[in-house]
Amino acid sequence: MDTGRLPEVIDIGKGAAKRLAAFCAARANSASGAAPPRLVADANTWKAAGEEALAELRGAGLASRATVFDEPYLAADARSILRLLLDDDPRERLYVAVGSGTITDIVRFACHRTGRGFVSLATAPSVDAYSSIVAPLVVDGGKRTVPAAAPVAVFADTEVLARAPRPMIAAGFGDMLCKFTAVADWRLGSLLWGEPFDEAIARRSVAAARSCADAAPAIGAASPEGVVALMRALVESGLCMAEAGHSRPASGAEHQYSHFWELRLLREGRPPVLHGLKVAIGTLEAARLWDGVRGLSKSQAAERLGRAAPPRREAEEALIREAFGDAAEEAIACQERFLSMGTAERESLMAAIIDGWDGILALAASVPGLAETRRLLALAGCPTDARELGLGQLEIALGMRSAHSIRDRFTVKKLALMIGLD
After folding, report:
1. What mean pLDDT do residues 330-355 have?
2. 48: closest CA among 13, 97, 84, 98?
3. What residues pair up with 145 in beta bridges, in sequence order?
4. Final residue in a domain of this structure, among 113, 129, 164
5. CA 189 to chain centre
6. Residue 343, exposed/middle/buried by CB under 10 A (0-12, 13-18, 19+)?
7. Domain containing 288 — which CATH number?
8. Which of 62, 132, 187, 196 could anchor a disulfide with 36, C-beta 3.0 to 4.6 Å?
């Protein structure tokens, strides 16, 4: 089975569970010997939509069973993936992922490794992972984004989406507004770091973010129109990642802050914070850095580059170890290209920054300023202060300083380090 293709169906509307069951029944009838679909949910998504979906599947003549995780803080990690596989058998079948980010990532990774397909039944407009082809997994205390399967179809019941907890709706908005900074970082990485880039996909990602920014009051009110606009934008963002073959259209420096804090909370056994709410705070920091870039002329940037001391590997590794603890070695390995730059490589990068400064200023101008970003997040009900997430001052500071080490990408954070922006 081809598990990397784009969804055949994207269905957002009332009564989605019934149409999902009909879709699964049609596929089962066309696949000789296929086992009934297996539904996967957690305790909350089972109540929100899983129980109804299982009844619809059985009503359509499918003897489906369910795996329902009951962990209070479910993570997309080896333990949960193994639990799903142990519940199953080797027969060909579809999975039905009922939930949002974590459930979808568990299922999409299992499908990628077993060559199966899955159908996504979204329960909240909280993440853009529904139609993605990568899964951010927790591996040995670190966060690793790995290839995974796209769903064969995405279904979402608008009534279920509107009933989602308000923080989850706000999280979806945070995960969409960040596309302004993410795409600016993607363009920057292409300009300075040779990262792969696609202009058409970049424009689509920004357009999806703009549609959410325009609908911020309706999204904050959880109106049907606002929730549908948000869900469509989230699916579009996932499609952008699927077509690009990586997460850059949707994930820049702001996601690195989110991943850093997520891993810290996991390591310490603390309650998780919704991904998009952490991304919202990361987006504010990225917008602040882009504001700083916007305020520099080419000559000022050149002067700063000339004054900035090259990073010392020992000192940088010490900072990473302080921030990442047991996961430090993986972060250090991610930063090998940056940490091992020789004099000639560094001078070449500095020259590229100055030569491309007019283009970099254009990127900065494409990002909503810090004040506007804060206003939009507040309209949609997102936090605008990291302390609202339950984070302490030290871990906030460690994230702001070292979260960029979690990925080998050239973002506004690395640019800020190069030119000495606080």
Report:
1. 93
2. 98
3. 136
4. 164
5. 18
6. exposed
7. 1.20.1090.10
8. 62
Q: Which domain does 147 fall in, by range?
A: 9-164
- 363 and 401: one domain? yes
Structural domain ending residue among the three candidates 164, 197, 219: 164
Instruction: Tell me if 245 sits within 8 A of 137, measured CB to CB.
Output: no
In the chain, how many domains are there? 2
Q: Which residue has the higher pLDDT, 144 or 190?
A: 190
- Residue at 358 is within a domain: yes
- Tell me the per-residue pLDDT of 274-329, one tens digit each, with 9 for 90 and over: 999 999 999 999 999 999 999 999 999 999 998 988 888 999 999 999 999 988 99
User: How many residues are given for the chain?
Assistant: 422
Residue 2 resides in a domain: no
Q: Are residues 294 and 312 in the same domain?
A: yes
CA 96/CA 117 separation, integer angstroms: 9
Is residue 61 assigned to a domain?
Answer: yes
- CA 362 to CA 360: how far, in whole Å? 5
Q: Is residue 4 part of a domain?
A: no
Q: Which residues contact 386 (CB under 8 A, 6 or more apart)?
A: 281, 396, 399
**117 and 150, same structural domain?**
yes
